[in-house]
Amino acid sequence: MRTRSSFAALIFIGIIVVGWALAFVVYRVTGDANSEWIGAIALVFAFAGFLATNVADQWEKAVILRLGKFRSLEGPGLFFIIPIVDTIPYWIDTRVITVSFKAEKTLTKDTVPVDVDAVLFWKVFDPKKAALDVANYQGAIGWASQTALRDVIGKTMLSDMLEGREKIGSELQKIIDARAEPWGISIISVEVKDVLIPTALEDAMSMQAQAERERQARVILGDSERQVAEKFGEAARTYADDPIALHLRAMNMLYEGLKENSTIVIVPSSAVETMQLGGLAGMTALTMGLQDREQKARELKKTNGSEA
Predict the structure, then answer these.
(1) Cα(14)–Cα(42) distance, integer angstroms
(2) Which CATH number applies to 97-197: 3.40.50.300, 3.40.50.1000, 1.10.260.40, 3.30.479.30?
(3) Which of the ends of the chain has fewer CB neighbours closer than 10 A, N or C?
(4) Which helix H or strand E contains 119, and what residues bound it?
(5) Which has more confidence, 72 or 287?
(6) Exposed (0-12), middle (13-18) or buried (19+): which is 207, by Cβ within 10 Å?
(7) 36-59 burial string, b = 16+ CB within 10 Å, else e?
């Protein structure tokens, strides 16, 4: 229920004060003791002025009915009506209004029950139609929104609903706007906030996504193995044309293994023959070379430590 403006109360008080002041002046000048009737008349005019004075805010429109028939739209600002003859059944808010609505346990096109939350942005562009052509325009907008949402859900696959919320919002806006335009209401936009699906289906979709990621990982691993095999093939062709390079590579691999592990390394007999390590002299030379290198490394560490 809308409260009266303080300006109407100010007019009421002002008329009473003026009337009683006039009655006092008449009593002092004429000495007529019956001057109280002036104050009574002032009280009647003050009450009528209080009922006739109305102030609409900047975003409001007042619907005026005269003896039940539409007379005009008033506001914003100060306006007057005829008490008893004119009435104001509606004060229409012309600002943008937001309404949250939802559809619970609604089946999609592929028979999956979902709960959908959405927000509707709308405004009244014709207050006369909103007041006269529909009994409760705000309630009508709410029911029209829910009905349209259920209709769209029933025509949409779950995958499309999860991926294309903007498309669903645009479709809802067209449907609701077509229903609300005869009521003088314009739909600005519809936004889908959330789509909730059953827990069991969430687990199944999570397992499906995990399986898809594993498949992609295996594909990537297989592709990597193919690329490595191609590189090994290229290296084999290079070593086939250059036995000295293969010999140096084999000796380097053996040296790296002995340096890291410092234990016995088992190599194929073919590799031993290739690197000419079959004799005792070859093995001794290799061992002495490794020992000399390790001795030099220890001396270098001691030298660095003493300098520090």
Answers:
(1) 10
(2) 3.30.479.30
(3) N
(4) strand 113-124
(5) 72
(6) exposed
(7) eebbeebeebbebbbbebbbbeee
Nearest to 61 by CA among 128, 3, 146: 128
Place of tokens 């003896």: 67
Question: Kindly report the CA angle at 18 between 16 and 19, in degrees rounded to 5?
Answer: 65
**SS3 labels along 197-234:** CCHHHHHHHHHHHHHHHHHHHHHHHHHHHHHHHHHHHH
Condensed to tens digits (0 to 9), the pLDDT of residues 46-72 reads 888 888 888 888 899 999 999 989 998
Beta bridge partners of 56: 77
d(CA 202, CA 196): 9
How far apart, in Å, do the first and last CA atoms of the chain sit? 90
Find out whether 39 and 58 touch, Cβ atoms under 8 Å.
no
Token pair recorded at residue 58: 């900047």
Q: Which residue has the tokens 């036995």?
A: 243
Can you tell me the distance from the alpha carbon of 276 to that of 112, in angstroms, rounded to the nearest whole number?
74
Which token pair is 127?
A: 């207050």
**pLDDT top residue among 90 and 278:** 90
Amino acid at 257: G
Q: Which residues pair with 107 in a beta bridge?
A: 113
Tell me which of 75 and 304 has the higher pLDDT: 75
Angstrom distance (rounded) from CA 44 to CA 38: 10
